[in-house]
Write a structure and sequence with these properties.
The protein is mostly helical. The chain has helices at about 15-25, 30-45, 50-75, 75-80, 100-120, 120-145, 150-155, 160-170, 175-200, 200-205, 210-215, 215-235, 245-270, 280-305. The radius of gyration is 19 Å and the shape is globular. Bound molecules: protoporphyrin IX containing FE and farnesyl diphosphate. Farnesyl diphosphate (FPP) binds near residues 27, 64, 68, 72 and 157. Farnesyl diphosphate (FPP) binds near residues 30, 68, 72 and 158.
Length: about 300
């Protein structure tokens, strides 16, 4: 990933420029993993779901997540303008009116929740609503500019999609999706704080109180490792608890071991040159692969019925 370049998939390059900007508002690259975890939550559920209903549920997760990305960019265009990584986004770059982003975000949010409620079920719609509100109000508006714990509490927003997928298929919430929620919840701090270590000057320039800016790199390194421990426990737990079979268990154990190794390297590293910081770059990149692989393994495991 090159964070200095466009956040859009290459297929989007063929679109008219205005469409590309609306797509960019939805943070499509981050949302691929959000949608994947939602899809896997749905496919791991014991109840089969009609393909059309299933597709609609995933579409609603994608649209709801996109809506919250647009509302996040509407609210923090001022901050985005101050950071190299985000200054090229449609609002800070002056290619779009703020009101257009607001209308797009609210319209998409309302549409996704209504469609989920009408075509899928009320529980899935309620959890989708909670995740949109969590990302936009709790994380973006309330916590992001106030406390370095912003991503711990507000980060729960990104942990809801497996619950939504499961609820879409079953109409309930059970222990396995609750564990998947906890997995993403504890995964988020190592994922983000590893990244924040090597882009901390951007956050400092924008006055955002991210952990390395407020508490320093040493504390951040330790926190990355500390949060990786409960994450590891929750990641492996479905196997001994009998909620997943050995395919998941073996993949989860191996990948989680490697995650802990990388997090340990981040904790032990004394690197202060932001341009280098190799262990944290490795952990950030691996964190994304890790979640894709774990959720993929869970679905394979459930389909094989092992
Ligand atoms: C509050 C919680 C989180 C924060 C603050 C955060 C922050 C970030 C940031 C700043 C980036 C760099 C993106 C860019 O280049 O613009 C990133 C990348 C990414 N994040 Fe997170 N993230 C969070 C949670 C999540 C969650 C829950 C997921 C999915 C389950 C996720 C998936 C990704 C992916 C896939 C990328 C790579 C995007 C790319 O290739 O450009 N993140 N994250
Ligand atoms: C289903 C649903 C509604 C899910 C939404 C949850 C969600 C999008 C979680 C991901 C969180 C995220 C992209 C944080 C980026 O931080 P930031 O906004 O501080 O990043 P930035 O600096 O790139 O703007």
């Amino acid at each position: 990933m090159n964070m200095a370049t466009s956040p859009l998939p290459t297929a989007a390059a063929a679109m008219p420029a205005e469409w590309r900007d609306f797509l960019a508002l939805t943070k499509p690259r981050v949302m691929t993993l959000v949608v994947f975890t939602g899809l896997c939550g749905m496919l791991a559920a014991p109840a089969p779901i009609h393909p059309v209903i299933g597709f609609t549920a995933i579409l609603c997760i994608a649209l709801g997540a996109g809506a919250s990305g647009a509302l996040n960019q509407w609210y923090e265009a001022d901050l985005d303008a101050l950071m190299k990584r985000t200054a090229g986004r449609p609002l800070p770059a002056g290619r779009m009116e703020r009101s257009s982003a607001l209308h797009f975000g609210v319209g998409l949010a309302v549409f996704s929740v209504l469609l989920m409620g009408l075509a899928v079920n009320l529980l899935a719609a309620a959890i989708l609503t909670a995740s949109i509100l969590f990302y936009v109000l709790v994380y973006t508006v309330w916590l992001k500019r106030r406390t370095p714990q912003n991503i711990v509490i507000g980060g729960a927003a990104g942990a809801f999609p497996p619950l939504i997928g499961w609820a879409a298929a079953t109409g309930t919430v059970d222990p396995l999706p609750a564990l998947l929620f906890a997995l993403i919840f504890f995964w988020t701090p190592p994922h983000f704080w590893a990244l924040s270590l090597f882009i901390r000057t951007d956050y400092a320039a924008a006055g955002v109180p991210m952990l390395p800016v407020v508490a320093g790199t040493r504390t951040t390194r330790n926190q990355v490792f500390l949060y990786s421990l409960p994450m590891a426990g929750v990641a492996v737990a479905p196997w001994p608890l009998g909620l997943a079979g050995y395919v998941y268990g073996v993949v989860a154990t191996g990948l989680t071991g490697f995650f802990l190794l990388l997090a340990g390297q981040v904790a032990l590293s004394r690197e202060t040159d932001q341009a280098k910081m190799r262990p944290e770059r490795r952990l950030f990149a691996f964190s994304i692969l890790y979640l894709f692989a774990l959720f993929g393994a869970l679905v394979v495991d459930r389909l094989l019925g092992l």
